[in-house]
Amino acid sequence: MAKKAPRRTAQRILETALDLFNRFGEPNVSTTLVAAELGISPGNLYYHYPAKDELINRLYEAYEAELDELLHASEGVHDVEDAWFFMHSLFELIWRHRFLYRDLNDLLSKNRLLETRFQAVLKNKVRAIRTLLAGMARAGHLEIDAREVDALAQSMVVVLTYWLSYEYVRNPREALEPAHAQGALLRGGQHTLHLLAPYLVSAQRRHLLTLSDAYASEDEAVA
Predict the structure, then answer these.
(1) Nearest 5°: CA angle at 29, between 103 and 40?
(2) How much is the pLDDT for 221?
(3) Which pairs with CB-CB distance under 8 Å and at least 24 residues apart come from 172-181?
(4) pLDDT of 3 above 50
(5) What's the confidence (pLDDT) of residue 205?
(6) Can you name the residues that pair with 200 across neighbouring β-strands?
(7) What is the pTM of this model?
(8) What is the DSSP secondary structure assignment for residue 28, as one 8-state letter?
């Protein structure tokens, strides 16, 4: 069997930086620490990424590309079951790049690329949620006045964007540790979807409550 080609140093640096940023928060991780974790010299790291911001920008660009692809899936959402899968997928993506959300305000204040492009991320999320709402309405599963759509979409995006910060405030020592990921994602998806409840037709509302009961039980099991 042919051996797998070794990962290039640049890719290994990115993967290690992402892991350390997620675990400890980007402000608490230096490029020297990333190099030490990899067992390479700081000079080797600087050869590939001369500044910490370049590491952050590359990680952000990978996140943004994956997010753009995922947001297109909102076009296929027609009922609560679809919406749950879509929302959980979004939360899983956010979790894999949680350092961006954990330290969002700090990152935006220091990094011009993130400052400008994260605004577009928010707009794209709102656009995707509006598409989701339109699809559910066309399928007869959602009844909402056109004047309420934007407020609902914005509210859902706020929860999506700041849910992990809320989890962190609730439990600073453990909330963002991998062992607690499943519970955090379940709660985030559940709370975001419950913003739809007042607009769902009765059968879909009952289904949402049934799903919530099942996910609450799963959350308790992993807690």
Answers:
(1) 145
(2) 53
(3) 176/22, 176/98, 176/102, 181/95
(4) no
(5) 95
(6) 142
(7) 0.87
(8) G
Tokens coding 181: 């990921």
Cα 135 to Cα 72: distance, rounded to the nearest angstrom: 13
Phi/psi for 155 (5° steps) reads -65, -40
Query: CA-to-CA distance for 34 and 117, rounded, in angstroms?
Result: 25
- Locate tokens 């490029």: which residue? 31
The string of pLDDT tens digits covering residues 16-67 is: 999 999 988 899 999 999 999 999 999 999 999 999 999 999 999 999 999 9
Q: Which residues contact 91 (CB under 8 A, 6 or more apart)?
A: 160, 163, 184, 185, 188, 189
> What are the Cα distances from residue 207, in Å, to 75, 90, 131, 180, 201?
21, 21, 21, 26, 10
* Amino acid of residue 22: N
Question: Which among 109, 133, 108 is positioned nearest to 122, based on CA atoms?
Answer: 108
Q: What does the alpha-carbon distance between residue 22 and residue 209 come to, in Å, rounded to a whole number?
A: 32
| 103: three-class secondary structure by DSSP | coil
pLDDT in tens, 194-220: 999 999 999 999 999 998 887 766 555
Render pLDDT for 92-141 as a digit per residue (tens, 0 to 9).
999 999 999 887 888 899 998 898 899 999 999 999 999 999 999 999 99
